[in-house]
Amino acid sequence: MEPLRRELHAHCYRMLGSTHDADDALQDALLRAWRGIARFEGRSSLRSWLYTVATRTCLDIVTTRGRRALPVDLGPSSDHAVLGDAPLNDVAWLGPYPDTGLTDGPAGPGARYEQREAVELAFVAALQHLPGNQRAALLLFEVLGFSAAEIATTMDTTTTSVNSALARARKVVADKAFPRTQQLTLRKIGDARVREIVAGYSSALERGDADALVALLTEDVTWSMPPMAHWYRGLEAVTDFAVRIPLTTCGSWRHLPATANGQPAVGSYRWNEDAAAHLAWSIDVFTLRDDRIAEVTSFIGSDHFAPLGLPASLS
């Protein structure tokens, strides 16, 4: 089972939208598989059987926990900075994903998506708008390359039902996902320019330089900060938010470059006087268009750092 652990974990994340839920689901699935190994008759590959167990485990969780959200799912954007914004802790929020170990190619010969494409924020967020059966069918077919007949066996349904679920799922994802995958954009931009963008963002926040930050953004840029409900769209609104909150009222910042969801990111550390150190604050994931930042998604919370291999503080 061990060689398949990484891709099974990614599958659980795509289904559930949370690294921590994926940890729990994979552990539960592997326990189920171990306890039921005597029932594995070898009529399919071990990989197919394990995906069946993992998918059914995730479907059980989806039924009880529902879908994960981003601030854009909850309401319209704010046109100016909202001071004193409080976290909404009763919402199940989408979380960032550590993409280390995922390959750039497809997971199966019939797969449409590359493994990194299939953990991009826009794709995983779109998946959350699907019922569990549609979500599973789309992932098993488009991302993992299983046939409709194999998926029908996995989900204990008919091939006709699988094809119907696929048709509905594709329409929803096409309407909600980013028109161009980040993997294509990143390859077009090149590694050197991506590093410049990440370094420029970090430097602008650390120096409190609004002009330098704005120069990196698209005109229709968005900035959201789960678990905060308010989010911002457009250069004017985002600039007002950045100037009034992270650039002036949050104190000193330090950053470490990272990747999450197959996209460039930084770990943002905020100065804490009591600890006399910069403490983990948020994982800022960038969605790029051409060579500018089109979206900043700042996942606030120190619990996001360890899965990405980032320290909890900087001295």
Question: Could you please describe the fold and organization of this structure?
Answer:
With 315 residues, this protein is an alpha+beta fold. The protein is 42% helix and 17% strand. The chain contains 11 helices and 7 strands. It has helices spanning 5-16, 19-35, 46-65, 121-127, 132-143, 148-154, 159-176, 182-189, 191-207, 210-214, 235-244, and strands at 217-224, 231-233, 253-260, 263-272, 277-289, 292-300, 313-314. Strands 1, 2, 3, 4, 5, 6 and 7 form a 7-stranded mixed beta sheet that branches. It is elongated. It starts with a helix and ends with a strand. The model has no long low-confidence stretch (mean pLDDT 93).
Features:
7-stranded mixed beta sheet; elongated; 315 residues; single chain; 42% helix; 17% strand; alpha+beta
List the helices and strands and how they pair.
Blueprint: H1 5-16, H2 19-35, H3 46-65, H4 121-127, H5 132-143, H6 148-154, H7 159-176, H8 182-189, H9 191-207, H10 210-214, E1 217-224, E2 231-233, H11 235-244, E3 253-260, E4 263-272, E5 277-289, E6 292-300, E7 313-314
Helix pairs in contact: 1-2, 1-3, 2-3, 3-6, 4-7, 5-7, 6-7
Binned strand content = 15-25%
Largest sheet: 7 strands, mixed
Which stretches are low in confidence, meaning pLDDT under 50 for 5 or more residues running?
none
Count of DSSP H/I helices: 11
Helix content: 40-55%
- Gap between N and C termini, in Å? 40 Å
Number of strand elements: 7
Radius of gyration: 20 Å
